[in-house]
Design a protein that fits this description.
Blueprint: H1 11-14, E1 54-60, H2 67-82, E2 87-92, H3 100-109, E3 114-118, H4 141-148, H5 151-159, E4 165-172, E5 176-180, E6 195-197, H6 202-210, E7 214-216, H7 223-229, E8 234-238, H8 239-244, E9 253-256, E10 263-269, H9 270-275, H10 278-312, E11 316-319, H11 322-331, H12 333-342, H13 344-355
Parallel strand pairs: 1-2, 1-3, 6-7, 6-8, 9-11
Antiparallel strand pairs: 3-10, 4-10, 5-8, 5-9
Helix pairs in contact: 2-10, 5-13, 12-13
Length: 356
């Protein structure tokens, strides 16, 4: 698994024990089993035998209408309910604690305990999670749900622990489509001359090059103004984000192709997670899995509703036909060869999904 130099910026932090950091994080280590801790007004006891009250500071760049926002809120509800109020989440969404790269850095350092972060953000540090976003890999959302919970996926998540991050589950935010203000995209040639914003990711840059798409880096928060000013002409985007961020006001065309999946990972600081009792770790895993399935149940409906909203708001929708879509798929073969040949876990995951 490839590792980038950015990891080294955090190596020294792992050797330092920190109880309070810049974002108001707290140390949430449970009391030692021996000797038996004294009970205080701040402690509580549940059926599992865990006693320490735990506060989780959790960040999310997006809004709570997105499936990863839904996952976050559901997890927060479940963990408080199932712990009898002993575990509480201080949840900050809409970029309050920073953008996704900043959130990932904070989780890696332990400044905050948790965040829901798009898996493409991890590409600055490792190519392990690129497997989840390979183009045209999934047939539908249900196949994705199965794949995300497979042993092959868990092997990918486990290797992220080298970064000091524990991933419990991954959720789909919505398949990516082509959207722009120049013309409908009906074939690969239609992309020529259109400046398209893509998610910052080495994988997605490789995919864009493979299909002949001119990609322009723009921060997520600046997409609207960049479309408005002409810095970019379009974007690869999911329908949910078009609606939630009012991009329909600065776009004209949406071309449906289900380009790739946009996945987001519920991530915890590994040292903090490992400091918890086995019972609390199991409870976090249980609540995470339940929240992931709850969010996945809603993802397709939200996407369908967002498509209708795009139509209602006057966007011109077209579907790229099967023959032309196959040309896009074929153009990405060399990308698959590159990524599966250099990472056995990526290959194992791709092979597993294709076998479903």
């Amino acid at each position: 698994m490839k590792r980038f130099q950015k990891i080294m910026a955090f190596v020294s932090v792992a050797a330092i024990s920190v109880s309070v950091m810049g974002c108001g994080a707290v140390s949430n280590k449970p009391a030692a089993a021996n000797p038996e801790p004294k009970k205080t007004e701040a402690s509580s006891t549940d059926d599992s035998g865990s006693e320490a009250e735990i506060k989780i500071i959790m960040g999310h760049e997006g809004n709570d209408d997105l499936p990863d926002g839904i996952l976050s809120l559901k997890f927060n509800e479940l963990i408080e309910e199932k712990s009898g109020g002993r575990i509480k989440v201080d949840y900050k969404s809409n970029g309050t604690l920073g953008d996704e790269d900043e959130l990932l850095q904070q989780v890696m350092k332990g400044s905050i305990q948790a965040a829901c972060i798009s898996t493409s953000t991890f590409s600055n540090y490792t190519d392990e999670l690129d497997a989840l976003q390979m183009p045209f890999l999934y047939k539908d959302y249900e196949q994705e749900r199965i794949a995300f919970q497979s042993d092959e996926a868990r092997a990918l998540y486990a290797n992220i622990e080298d970064l000091g991050v524990k991933i419990t589950d991954v959720v789909e935010i919505g398949s990516r489509q082509f959207a722009n203000k120049v013309r409908p995209i009906t074939c690969m040639e239609d992309l020529k001359g259109i400046k398209m914003r893509i998610v910052p990711s080495t994988l997605l840059s490789d995919v864009a090059a493979a299909i002949g798409m001119t990609s322009t880096p723009v921060a997520y928060s600046e997409i609207y103004s960049s479309l408005q000013s002409g810095v970019i002409d379009g974007e690869e985007i999911n329908l949910i984000s078009i609606v939630s961020n009012s991009h329909d006001e600065v776009l004209k065309y949406v071309s449906i192709i289900d380009f790739y999946s946009f996945t987001s990972a519920l991530s915890f600081n590994l040292d903090w997670y490992n400091s918890l009792s086995a019972e609390d770790q199991a409870l976090i895993s249980e609540c995470s899995a339940e929240a992931m399935n709850y969010a996945m149940d809603q993802c397709e409906k939200i996407a369908d509703d967002s498509l209708q909203t795009c139509i209602d708001r006057g966007l011109e929708i077209n579907y790229i036909d099967d023959a032309e879509k196959q040309r896009f798929i074929d153009a990405c073969d060399k990308v698959y060869e590159k990524y599966t040949s250099r990472n056995e876990n990526v290959k194992a995951y791709v092979d597993y999904v294709r076998s479903l």
